[in-house]
Each structure stands twice: as C-alpha cells, then as structure tokens.
Amino acid sequence: MQQASETEVLVVPASREDGGRLRRITTAGAIYDRLYADIVSLRMPPGMLLQEKRIADDFGVSRTPVREALLRLSEGGLVDIYPQSGTVVSRVPVSAIPEAVVVRKALEGATVDAAALTATTADIARLDAIIARQRAHAATGNASGFHEEDEAFHEAITQISGYPGIWAILKTVKVQIDRARRLTLPVLGRMDNVVQEHMIIRDALAAHDAAAARSAMIHHLSAVIPDVDELRARYPHYFC
User: Based on the domain organization, do 48 and 165 belong to the same domain?
Assistant: First the structure.
C-alpha cells in the first residue's frame, strides 16, 4: 500500500452536531481519532496490546505518525507505553472517576444555567431530535449509537449556552467515565432511564427554568457514576 505523507492534511467530515462541515486533520490526528474512539468504546479493551507496525500498515503510513498518536493517547491516560516492551491500552483508573464527576457537575451546571436563559424553539427541537434518536437506539439495544447521541445531547447544551469551548474541556475530563459507562449501558433499563433524565432537562430548558435545569443536570450527572465496585468485580482486568 502506498504510504501517506506523515504531515499530510486529510479532509474529513465533522460531527453531525457541527453541521457536517469538512475539517482538516493531519495523518497523526486521524490515527489518534480512530484509536481514541476504539479505546473509549472498548472495541480496544484495557490491556490490549497495540502494535505500531500493524496500525501503520492499516493506515498506509510509516510508524512516525503512529508514534505521535500513541504519545497523545498516553498523555491522555488512554495507553501505557513501555520502552522496549510495547504499548497497551490502559486500565480505567478508579481514582480519576469521582473528581471527573465533580468537574463535570460544575461545568455542565454552568452551561445548563445559561442554556435555560437563551434556548430558542429551534434549540429545543434540536434536543428533541437527539432524544428521539436515543429512544430508537434504546429500543434496539444499540449501545454505541446511544452513547453517540448522549454525547450529542450534552454537546448541544454547551453550544446553546454560548460556551461551546467547554465541551472540549469536558471531553478530556470525562474520558475515563465514558469508558466505565460503556460497561453499564447494556444493563436492562439503563438507557431508558437516561432518556427520561434527558427529557426532564429538556423540559426545564424549554420552560426557561434555570434552577430546575441545573437540578436535573446535577441529578443526571450523579447517576452517571457507575457502581465501580460491581464493575471491578465483573471486569477485574479493566480497572486499576
């Protein structure tokens, strides 16, 4: 396969919530995005060995952009690099979860406050469309699709609030929560509960009731804390 330039800029579709606009990304960035998504979704589970050569071959590039992507993932706590030994997907650090929830409550409490004051009819319709897609995924048991729409819901609120940059901060803060939550979504009734919690937030925003919106968001984010002890018992090799 012909190798792409290590500094090549690729043009790829952005997320639906960004309007599907095209964005430019380096080869290393594209590799990072793919590995990040696979690790967070648990398609690459904790403890999995990552082989630079195989990844490079998959993308048709040299090992240089692969190493750059792996270094970024290491800085984000998603892979562990062992010199002379190899690189593995990191285990989920239990100690990082409570602090991440505290940060998330503070930031999303602020954005939902602001969104309650500024939400338009079009904004509420946008949330309704996301919730409708979540219901459809819950009905079919599509945990991956459901999680994608869950992300879209919370990102939309930061955009409605006028503070879209907060979402970039939150994505970094909550990455270990997201990995743990992927193990809880298949639990019977969990996705339906999330939809109901989102509806309560949506209704408070539609009513421009900032206090109710904040209260509903804080309750919702408290519920995202997985039962770590139970998860560790069921998946002992996934946590540290």
Answer: no
